[in-house]
Amino acid sequence: MALTTNFNYLQPTSFKIVIDRKNYPNLEYFCQNVTHPSMMMNAVDVPYKKITSVPFPGDKLTFGELSTNIILDEDMNAYQELYDWQMRLLDTPTKTALDRNRGDIPSYCDITLHILSSANNTSKKIKYLDCIPVSLGDIMFESTANGMEYIVFNAQFKFTYFELV
Asked: What is the DSSP string of 44-73?
């Protein structure tokens, strides 16, 4: 791989997230930040002569959770979408990613993070496949808040894997 010719640094506000627009339009619109998850491969330590051990690449990848913070609108629509998604998962625990062709709302959803250039064009995409919500974070209502601070809640997703597109 050669040295890049683009020496512009990636800005923290240069992103857009796309979550099934048809079923979750508010989650996409009100998303304030995204934490790209870690990816770990557990190394296997193999003893070798007088050296304590030599690490060899493992055979499994472990992904962290995709974490997002979503601003809460007055009607709590974004929160309601995620709440309904999680409640629907309780009703259909055996429904898999292969059931997407059915007419009802799928349990699994792909989420795509668009990385934007300094000209606000998509320069790279990270696609998280077969996502399900695993955590719907706290909402803190506070009567002593100063100024125009908006309420934000956290949502975390598990996924099968991600790919750089």
From this structure: EEEEETTEEEEEE--S-EEE--EEEEEEPP
pTM of the predicted model as reported, rounded to 2 decimal places? 0.82
4-41 burial, b if ≥16 CB within 10 A, otherwise e? eeeeeeeeeebbebebbeeebebbbebbeebeebeeee
Q: Give how many domains the chain has, as a whole number.
A: 1
User: Strand, coil or helix: what is 5?
Assistant: coil
Of the candidates 114, 110, 111, which has an alpha carbon nearest to the alpha carbon of residue 10? 114
In tens, the pLDDT along 8-52 reads 788 888 898 988 877 888 888 888 999 999 999 988 888 888 777
Is the residue at 4 inside a domain?
Answer: no
Task: For residue 119, give both structure tokens.
Answer: 């000209």
At 161, the pLDDT band (50, 70, 90 cuts) reads very high
Q: What is the DSSP letter of 98?
A: G
CATH of the domain at 64: 2.30.110
Domain span at 43:
15-98+105-164
Do the domain assignments include residue 6? no
